[in-house]
Specification:
elongated; mainly alpha
Length: 227
Amino acid sequence: MGWWRRWRAGRFSADVVSRLGDFGHRLGSGPRAEFRARLRDELLRTHQSERVPAGQPPHDRPSIPAVPGWIRLRPWAGLSAMIVATVVTAMVTYSAVPGDLLYPLKRAAESTLLTLTTSDADLADRQMTAAKARAGEAAALLQAATTPNRKELLKETLQDMDTTTRAALNRVKPRAKADARAQAKVRTFAREQRNRVEVMLPKLDEENRERANEYLVFIDGYTVGGY
């Protein structure tokens, strides 16, 4: 009986292998020729339908909308606005007087210029320019009768003018003794400052008038030279 079972099992295995081989032969190693032909025809038809003849606009393709001119100019308009705003702010800052919102910015810029100056001659020139600015600010405060704390602001402005003037003239004095051009520049500055401050005296209160007179006494020594 054992040999019979082995013989039947061998026949069954051989029959299965034979059927699988026949099935694989029918399937072949890839898609059938009919399927490949249909797929190729379908791809060719799709390609032909999507092609656009030369010179013909692609109507079926989505077109990119043109960017309006005002949108293209927007960055330049923004840059121009920034430049104008900067120039206007600089002009307003330059004309600011004590008590104005932008006055601290003006003094900060002035202080930065003085700090960055390395030459004694240039530093003296900028200090004299700053003293002239303080005299102009004092005159503007006298005309602005409604300025809050005008008396105190005038006091601080005149003190700054006096301090800056003394620093400038003390720095330029050694050079001016041997340099005719520097001496002439000092005399011109002293005379202009005298003219600026002298006309303020009748409008100043007693305390600030005394401070202005002390300044005039000091500056008089530089109006004629020989120092």
